[in-house]
Design brief:
It is a single chain. This protein is of the alpha+beta class. It has one domain: Gcn5-related N-acetyltransferase (GNAT) (Aminopeptidase, 3-Layer(aba) Sandwich). The protein contains five helices and five strands; from the N terminus they run βαααβββαβα. It has helices spanning about 15-20, 25-30, 30-40, 85-100, 110-115; strands spanning about 5, 45-50, 55-65, 70-80, 105. The structure holds coenzyme A.
Length: about 140
C-alpha cells in the first residue's frame, strides 16, 4: 500500500518532529509545543503522509495561505527511505488543492525537485529577527 496523505492531527506531532530532526531544522524542534501550535495556526494547511499499520508519519507539508490567491511552503520533508516515489510531489499537489489558492511560493534547498514541477523561478531570502536587530 502506498502512503496515504491525510490532514495533520496532534498525534502526528512526534512523527513530524522526527522528520524535522532528521533534517536538523533546529528552529522547528527546539520547542515541540510551539511547533505543534504553528502547524495548526490560522491559515495553515498541514498534511502528513502515513504508512503501515501503525500509520507512521513518513512525510509532511506545512503550507500557509490567504485562502484566496497566495500560499507559501513553510516546510516539506519526506523520510529518507520513502523518497523518490512521488510523495513530495503529491504533498505539494494535495496541499495546494486543499488551500484552494492559485499559486504557492517557497524558498528552496532542493532546486531540482521543484524544477520538475515548474520553470518559474525567482530568488529568495530569509530575514531573521537577529538580522534586523531584534532580540
Ligand atoms: C525534497 C523532498 C521533499 C522530495 O521528496 P520526494 O518524495 O523524494 O519527492 P518526489 O519523489 O516527488 O520527487 C523526487 C524527485 O525529485 C528530483 N530531485 C532532484 N533533486 C532533488 C533534491 N535535491 N531533493 C529531492 N528531490 C530531488 C529527483 O528526480 C527525484 O526523483 P528520483 O528519486 O527518481 O531521482 C525530499 O527529498 C526531502 O524531504 N528532502 C529533505 C528536506 C528538504 O530538502 N525539503 C525541502 C526544503 S526547501
Amino acid at each position: 500500500m502506498p502512503a496515504a496523505i491525510v490532514p495533520y492531527r496532534p498525534e502526528h506531532l512526534d512523527g513530524v518532529l522526527a522528520l524535522f530532526a532528521a533534517e536538523r531544522w533546529l528552529t522547528l524542534i527546539e520547542d515541540p509545543a510551539r511547533t505543534g501550535r504553528a502547524l495548526v495556526a490560522p491559515g495553515c494547511t498541514t498534511l502528513v503522509a502515513v504508512d503501515g499499520p501503525d500509520e507512521d508519519v513518513v512525510g509532511v507539508i506545512w503550507m500557509q495561505s490567504d485562502g484566496e490567491i497566495q500560499a507559501h511552503v513553510s516546510a516539506i520533508a519526506v523520510g529518507r527511505d520513502q523518497r523518490g516515489k512521488g510523495l513530495g510531489r503529491s504533498l505539494i499537489t494535495e496541499a495546494l488543492d486543499a488551500t484552494g489558492v492559485t499559486r504557492v511560493d517557497l524558498i528552496s534547498v532542493a532546486d531540482e525537485f521543484y524544477g520538475q514541477m515548474t520553470e518559474r523561478r525567482f530568488q529568495g531570502f530569509r530575514i531573521t529577527r537577529g538580522d534586523v536587530g531584534l532580540g
